[in-house]
Amino acid sequence: MGLKSNLHKLKEKYKDTKMAPAFNAIHTFLYLPNETAHNGTHIKVADDLKRTMNTVIMALIPCLIFGMFNAGYQHYLALGEIQRVSGGFFSSEFWTMANFTVGFWKILPLIIVSYVVGLGIEILFATIKKHEVEEGYLVTGMLVPLIVPIDIPLWMLAVAVIFGVVIGKEVFGGTGMNILNPALTIRAFLFFAYPTWMSGDKVWVTGAVERTNEIVAGAKLDVISGETILGSLAQGKEFAYSTWDMFLGFVPGSVGETSTLLILLGGLFLIFTKIGSWRIMLSATLGALAMGLIFNGVVNAGWIGEGSKFYSLMTTPYWHHLLIGGFAFGAVYMATDPVTASQTNKGKWIYGFLIGFISIMIRVFNPAYPEGVMLAILLMNVFAPTIDHYVVQGNVKKRLKRLKVKTT
Amino acid sequence: MGLLSKKDAALIKDPLTDNNPITIQVLGICSALAITAELEASIVMSVAVLFVMGSGNLIISLMRNIIPSKIRIIVQLIVVATLVIIVDLVLKAFAYELSKTLSVFVGLIITNCIIMGRFEAFALANGPWRSFLDGIGNAAGYALILIIVGFFRELLGAGTLLGIPVLGNPIPGELSGVYKYGYENNGFMLLAPMALITVGIIIWIQRSRNKELIED
Question: Considering Cα of A153, then A155, then A157, then A163, what sign does the dihedral take?
């Protein structure tokens, strides 16, 4: 008697009852269904929703593993117990068991909370609405731990997940009907509800907040901190990371967003498996570069002096914007979400370009919101149907014109 | 009902439940979003609207036979404006701090769609007593939602009710109450989008309890 047959028995037993979707969901999540079609003509495609979701999760695994090592690395670096990595990506100073252990035990609870709460809500709603549980949360549940600061309290994450799944998705009709990307809705909620946990120099390094509290309580310890590059730039401060560090990801930041290299690999994997849209990724990059070039140009033309509060962000070399902050992660994993992105090919170009363009604009002009890419993607999510509408209408008009030319 | 006939009682009861001006007719949303960050402001705003609507409906109803229909909107505006100025001056005289919190929103009661809507739809066609009840009923329906939203926004957003801390002391170093266990105020509740979402959730709950209210 394996788990599978037990689950199957339970499924049969609770068939046609209120609890049926819950058992079905767990069953199909863990195993292939026993039932196959028996007669008639069928077109067989292996790419069902579950397969698609699992592919994205596979693309996220490298970022997750790297995030675990990086969490420990930033922790020990801030404590002054280890030196900065000097030997490139495969440097043995970085890939140590000690680093991994710290990160693993910090990130595992985030993943568990994200999945348990999120799937719980999904199952609850499926039971109320009497439909099957959809796999929509599988990717969101993995994205959420990757885009939050590592020290976020678990109850906050749980509250945010409830908000994001209910208000961001279920009220619109569940998976496939949502206007906003649920993972980003969750992050935006955290960002506006608990700003002290989402920005500043204490939240990106695990243990920093605890240490601060101990010092407040009277312990004689050194403060540990780690500001993100964007945060330092927004305050016009110096930071000590090389371009190479930014690209490889040895910098403080949200759990999974720091390594541009691994995100790039994940992106290529998504393009290769035809899950993610290369048009959106490419056009978002172009948009970001365009805005970065404009800012650099404005500075070069001498319109902005050193006294301006935007100076340090504006002088950042335009291509640096692709490496710092969550831009790469957002463009590859968030903007390409097929439900909330534009559907038409021309629409995807416009949608992606504006995401890149607006991300960098928010980043530079509003230092209070260093992570512009989150807000830019949410904004463009709202506009995606409008873009599609005009693309389709434009096509209809063009064809009508052709028709008229032919008939006259 | 000894005091009110069944028909009259419905004038008060309906706007509180199945014909609520905010959740069903979706009127008067602006002020419901703008001033509900604190419970006290919600209550004062509710009382102000209660006064303006009750007496406004009564006055319009008394004048309904002598108002030329071509200029009735102007006449209605003058009546509301007069009443609102009375409220504004009273607030400035007796609760100056609060009138600063409410700022322009007291003045904007004039443009509250519920008030003009009830003048047009009810007071112009009904007697003074029934118009008065209708005004009170609708204002009470508005007040009910305002107070519910204000209650949750202040409680979850600032941890206080009517300015009194009810969840403990959030200042680091001297934590008490729920803050000792790591709880923190939800700053999002103090922003207008969360007010809209709160109103939306009330609408959701109301319609799932009474399916007849769902329109396609």
Answer: negative
Distance CA A375, CA A368 (A): 12
On whether residue B14 sits in a domain, the answer given is: yes
User: Cα dist. A46→A51, A81, A387 in Å?
Assistant: 7, 50, 31
Q: Which two tokens stand for residue A146?
A: 């990757």
Contact by Cβ (8 Å): A179, A381: yes
Query: CA B159, CA A284: separation in Å to the nearest integer?
Result: 41
The pLDDT score that the predictor gives to residue A219 is 66
* Residue A152's pLDDT band (cuts 50, 70, 90): confident
| Residue pairs spanning A and B at CB distance below 8 A | 27
As a whole number of angstroms, the distance between CA A347 and CA B48 comes to: 50
Q: Which of A179, A194, A378 to mutate to test the interface with B (most CBs of B within 10 A)?
A: A194
Residue B36 maps to a domain: yes
Give me the pLDDT at residue B1, please. 46
How many CB atoms within 10 Å of residue B175?
A: 16
ipTM over 0.85: no
**Number of structural domains found in chain B:** 1
Task: Closest CB to B187: pick one of A155, A193, A217.
Answer: A193
Put simply, whether A196 touches B (Cβ < 8 Å) is yes
Domain ranges of chain A: 2-33+48-197, 276-388
Is residue B1, in this structure, part of any structural domain at all? no
Say what the alpha-carbon torsion angle A162, A164, A166, A170 is, to the nearest 10 degrees.
-140
